[in-house]
Amino acid sequence: MRSSLCWLLTLLLLLASAAQGQPTRRPRPRPRPRPRPRLRPTPSFPQPDEPAEPTDLPPPLPPGPPSVFPDCPRECYCPPDFPSALYCDSRNLRKVPVIPPRIHYLYLQNNFITELPVESFRNATGLRWVNLDNNRIRKVDQRVLEKLPSLAFLYMEKNQLEEVPAALPRNLEQLRLSQNQISRIPPGVFSKLENLLLLDLQHNKLSDGVFKPDTFQGLKNLMQLNLAHNTLRKMPPKVPSAIHQLYLDSNRIEAIPSGYFKGFPNLAFIRLNYNLLSDRGLPKNSFNISNLLVLHLSHNRISSVPAISNRLEHLYLNNNSIETHMTFKEYLTSLGSVLVCKMAQNVYEDLLV
């Protein structure tokens, strides 16, 4: 019994020593997954509207040196030898500076101005000349014009006006509103402009329905009316009788009413190029008026030379459909005292020599 116990004890000791000689394998720790970064919630801000232009406007020019006039706006120029003038043109301005009361001539053309604040003109009651050409003005506050009783020349070409400004000063002599988006003329807007000599409304969106019998009422001394490059199909009604020059180029006028020009004793210059006039739309003696000196009828559909006054000096009939079977001498005799006659691009090859 003792021998078997001793043998068993010896066996256990041998197994224990063998186990101590071998390295014990420990299980490899599994790599812990890296924690993912937590995404912070992005705050939602209102997104600004896309600009109307692909690029930003150029920055305003830096202020100039101090002027000899303490009230001169730093973004403008006040010439020392012309104290009544203020030059703020071509300076990338967005708004009109405050105009000093001594200013009579204001130049604001070629900027990015969109409105005319009342505060800027509050003390500029002596203004006589204002040039706002080539800006972005859509509408004029009538309170601004009401404060300019001495204004005689208003230039607002190449803007974004949709109607003729109201409350125009009584002393206005020239009103230039070409190359806008004007499609409306408020009733009575010209009724008090007895001193207006020039009205330029070319390159707008004026149609026949805009012109009423009283649209030009009050323009007693108007000398030049420019309605070229609009969408007229008819001659405008009740044009002021004092007119000297009438521009109606590039419309779609098809006919002239009989005796239309008889009521204009001073009319010396007519332009009707690029219309749809034909012989059918020209009553006899339409242009046979005593004071007419220059007549433009190019690029129409006229097939015969209209009757003209013997005082006419310049006649333009090129690019029509005129035919003639007269001899050269008869042709010259028919032109009377015409000094310049252009008839290129017509059908008159059979003119006899």
From TrEMBL:
**Highest taxon in the source lineage:** Eukaryota
Protein name listed in UniProt: Proline and arginine rich end leucine rich repeat protein
What organism is recorded for this protein?
Ovis aries (Sheep)
Q: What is the lineage of its organism?
A: Eukaryota, Metazoa, Chordata, Craniata, Vertebrata
